[in-house]
Design a protein that fits this description.
The protein is 70% helix and 0% strand. The protein is mostly helical. The protein has one domain (6-208): DhaL domain (Serine Threonine Protein Phosphatase 5, Tetratricopeptide repeat, Alpha Horseshoe). Helix 4 packs antiparallel against helix 5 (81-95) and helix 6 runs antiparallel to helix 7 (130-145). The radius of gyration is 16 Å and the shape is globular. Bound molecules: adenosine-5'-diphosphate and magnesium ion (2 copies). InterPro entries: DhaK_L_YcgS (IPR012737), DhaL_dom (IPR004007), DhaL_dom_sf (IPR036117), Dihydroxyacetone_Kinase (IPR050861).
């Protein structure tokens, strides 16, 4: 499609809920290695609540869907990730205006990244979800500037987020619980970078379907 609308946003959320549920144990194990082992549980609880909430509402716009995701994640996920993802989706919601073309996808992801950075103060290379969102937003912007469509922009973003998640493995954590481990955090993938990669893969799949 030339633009992505409310149906895409709802399909994104449904696919996000499924992938978070399918990877619940993986995310728990990643967080057990360098955190407190709750990231998979937190994310699954959050997206289960989002699914329930969206079943009772009939959001009209992409922005309304993202705003519902934001407020529900903020009130149900807890920990570090709840406010971070909540802020990302809220800023993303504010950045979208109607349906999304590739530039709209890039603007949504850039706004999400800025929200995460504003909330968590992490820079690139500190082994957090910023290391997935940063490359993702950049890749989406490049795709838009190359004249590609929104599905291609999301695919580029998802692939960049997956590579960004891989790149967190050798990093030493400087933010969040994993930073308490210092050098011992190296050699493990960051759970939030991985869940971010899963969410963006879900967005790309919804756009491609
Ligand atoms: P908690 O650490 O409170 O148990 P979660 O386990 O749900 O919360 O989420 C941990 C993830 O949150 C980390 O893997 C990391 O990606 C992300 N995170 C933690 N602190 C920050 C921060 N300051 N900035 C960006 N992301 C962060
Ligand atoms: Mg945790
Ligand atoms: Mg916790």
């Amino acid at each position: 499609a030339a633009t992505l609308g409310t149906d895409w946003a709802l399909d994104w959320v449904a696919r996000a809920a499924k992938t978070v549920s399918d990877h619940r144990i993986d995310l728990i194990e990643l967080d057990r290695a360098i955190g407190d082992g709750d990231h998979g549980e937190n994310m699954d609880r959050g997206f289960t609540a989002v699914t329930a909430k969206l079943a009772t509402l009939r959001p009209d716009t992409v922005g309304d869907v993202l705003k519902t995701v934001a407020t529900t994640l903020m009130s149900t996920v807890g920990g570090a990730a709840g406010p971070l993802y909540g802020t990302a989706f809220l800023r993303g919601a504010k950045a979208v205006d109607g349906e999304l073309d590739a530039a709209g996808v890039a603007s949504m992801l850039e706004a999400g990244l800025e929200g995460i950075r504003a909330r968590g103060k992490a820079e690139a290379g500190e082994k957090t979800m910023v290391d997935a969102w940063g490359p993702a937003a950049e890749a989406a912007r490049r795709a838009a500037e190359d004249g590609q469509g929104p599905a291609e922009a999301l695919r580029a973003a998802a692939d960049a987020a997956a590579a960004g998640s891989d790149a967190t493995i050798p990093m030493v954590a400087r933010k969040g619980r994993a930073s308490y481990l210092g050098e011992r955090s190296a050699g493990h993938r960051d759970p939030g970078a991985e869940s971010s990669s899963l969410l963006l893969a879900a967005a790309a799949e919804a756009a491609e379907s």
